[in-house]
Structures are given as structure tokens and as C-alpha cells.
Amino acid sequence: MHNPLPIPTKEDWIGHKCPVDGDPFYQDFDLKTAYRNFYGKTHAEAFALFVDNAINYQEDVFWMPERCLGFYLLAYVHYMDSELSHGDSDGANCFFGLVEFRSVDIRNGHPEVREAVIRTLRRVGQAQEWYDAAPKHYGSFAALSEACLALLGAA
């Protein structure tokens, strides 16, 4: 598992613009939760969190400062690409939502992170059955993937 970014520092976690237009509720609660769960974690430690409960920990990535997003998003990408994500329909489905929500930051962020997300979107979009994600419940992974790729300028 390669991560080209350094582990985010305490300074990376503070003094940023909250993804929800500075809403103090999210800035206070969700950012603190993300910080508590991820601060100081290595790539391998973050990967283990996603293995343990991807649907829970991906929510933290939603609220991370831009400087932390890339580092921890790569751990989620590596989880989605691993054999350990087999059958994790919720983890796969939530990946699309995270990419959609943070698409501007991903598109404008570190090029290696953007390219890894694009590769994973393409693979997950074609692997709905592998993730055991019933289309009647989750919709079409191919369509979700294409929509996210378009947001990243990669359609």
C-alpha cells in the first residue's frame, strides 16, 4: 500500500474551512469525531479501520480538512481495492457518496490521489455483484461511477 502523502499533522487538522460552509455543528461534532478516530494514524492503521467498519469510518473522511482528506481517502481506496472489501455493499456504495461530496477537493488535490480514486471508481462501477450490492437497493454502480467520474473530470 503506497501513500505519497505524509501523515497529517495537528496543524493540518486545524484552521481549515469546513466542507459545509463553516456550519459550526458539523465543524464541532463531525470534525472532532474524525480527528479522534484518525489523528496520527498511519496509512496501515487507517486501512485497518476501514476493514473493521468502512461505512462508519468513511463518514469521518467526509468532514476532514482538505490536507487530511487525501491521505486518509487513499486508505479507503486501498480497502475498496482489496480482497477484504469483498461483499461490502455498504462500503462500496458509500465510496460513491464520499467522492461526490468531496469531488472538488479530490479533483484539485494531489494528482496521485485523484488518479487512484478514478481507477477505483472504474473498478467498483463494474463490480456490483462482487460487492453483493443488489441494484434494486443500491441502484446501478456503473451509473454512480460514471456520475462521479464526470465530477472528477474523468468521464
Radius of gyration: 15 Å
Count of beta strands: 0
Number of helices: 9
Q: Which H/E pattern describes the elements?
A: HHHHHHHHH
Overall pLDDT: 90
Structural class: mainly alpha
Low-confidence stretches: none
Total individual domains: 1
* Beta-strand content: under 5%
Q: Summarize the main sheet.
A: none
Gap between N and C termini: 26 Å
**What is the molecular shape?**
globular
Q: Kindly state the percentage of residues in helix.
A: 55-70%
Characterization of the model:
- With 155 residues, the chain is mainly alpha-helical.
- The protein has one domain (16-151).
- 67% of the residues lie in helices and 0% in strands.
- The protein is built from nine helices and no strands.
- It has helices spanning 10-13, 24-38, 43-62, 66-81, 89-101, 103-108, 111-125, 135-138, 141-151.
- Helix 3 packs across helix 4 (66-81) and helix 3 crosses helix 5.
- The longest helix is centred in the middle third of the chain and has 20 residues, at 43-62.
- The protein is globular, with a radius of gyration of 15 Å.
SSE layout:
Layout: H1 10-13, H2 24-38, H3 43-62, H4 66-81, H5 89-101, H6 103-108, H7 111-125, H8 135-138, H9 141-151
Feature tags:
155 residues; 67% helix; mainly alpha
Provide a brief overview of the structure.
The chain has 155 residues and is mostly helical. The protein contains nine helices and no strands.
